[in-house]
Design a protein that fits this description.
This protein is mainly alpha-helical. It is 72% helix and 0% strand.
Length: 101
């Protein structure tokens, strides 16, 4: 084979590896965002049900005692943000191609 042909073949082989790595990284990041968003939303729903039963006033309280953003967000606002993050991450995860084995 001539030198230009070897370089062309190398370029064709190098692109899928890079794309595969980026796709795997994107899928891992989106899966993590989906999972943690969903778990945070479920945690807030459990707090809301507990608040309804025991009438503790938890929904308007800050999420933690730390007075720095994003830790001092209200519990109900945190639940809404977590739901949006989980839904958006799941949607983008479905659009990302799956790895071929």
């Amino acid at each position: 084979m001539t030198e230009p042909t070897k370089r062309a073949i190398y370029k064709l082989e190098a692109v899928p590896r890079n794309m595969k790595l980026r796709t795997q990284t994107r899928r891992a990041l989106l899966s993590t965002l989906f999972l943690f968003g969903l778990l945070t939303w479920v945690y807030v729903v459990i707090l809301q049900v507990t608040d309804l039963v025991l009438n503790l006033g938890l929904m308007s309280a800050p999420l933690t005692h730390i007075n720095v953003l994003p830790f001092n967000l209200r519990v109900d606002l945190t639940g809404m943000i977590a739901f949006v993050v989980a839904a958006l991450a799941f949607f983008l995860l479905q659009l990302t191609p799956k790895a071929r084995r």
